[in-house]
Design goal:
It is a single chain. By secondary structure, the chain is α+β, with helices and mostly antiparallel strands. The chain has one domain. Helix content is 16%, strand content 43%.
Length: 141
């Protein structure tokens, strides 16, 4: 069973083998993390030591030539763009969290990473963070 951890909810997972959402009472080993944005699956997945970005049915292998750009669109929304070279591969708007009332289900998250787009951008744009993210998930298996 290959699971992705929900970015916002402690006990929620997504089984990528069965394409089903599931809940567990205790922490499970995962190969990535996801968040549903406007009914679309978005996430990071680690397979065979490589990092992938998920968007809907698409899966992008993240290399050093990929970059995430974030743009403030309003007081409540930001725009996320995944770029490779001069090509925009993915763009979407996501809501800014209103407060930090809930503790993140991710034990290694930094205080600045409570916004989904920022969290993804910091991993994709920073080779050291990307390597740490991949290593942490691979070691948990």
């Amino acid at each position: 069973m290959r699971l992705l951890k929900n970015f916002d909810l402690f006990k929620e997972y997504y089984n990528i083998d069965t394409n089903q959402f599931c809940s567990f009472g205790d922490l499970q080993k995962t190969i990535g993390i996801y968040k549903i944005i406007k009914s679309i699956m978005t996430g990071l997945l680690v397979e065979d030591g490589c990092l992938y970005f998920l968007f809907g049915e698409e899966k992008f292998l993240i290399t050093e030539s990929h970059q995430v750009l974030l743009e403030v669109k309003s007081n409540v929304e930001n725009k996320f763009s995944l770029i490779k070279g001069n090509d925009v591969l993915v763009e979407f708007l996501y809501s800014k969290p209103s407060t930090k009332l809930n503790v993140s289900p991710i034990e290694y998250i930094d205080e600045d990473d409570f916004k989904w787009g920022d969290f993804i951008a910091r991993i994709i744009n920073d080779e050291s963070r990307k390597r740490n993210f991949v290593t942490n998930l691979m070691e948990s298996h």
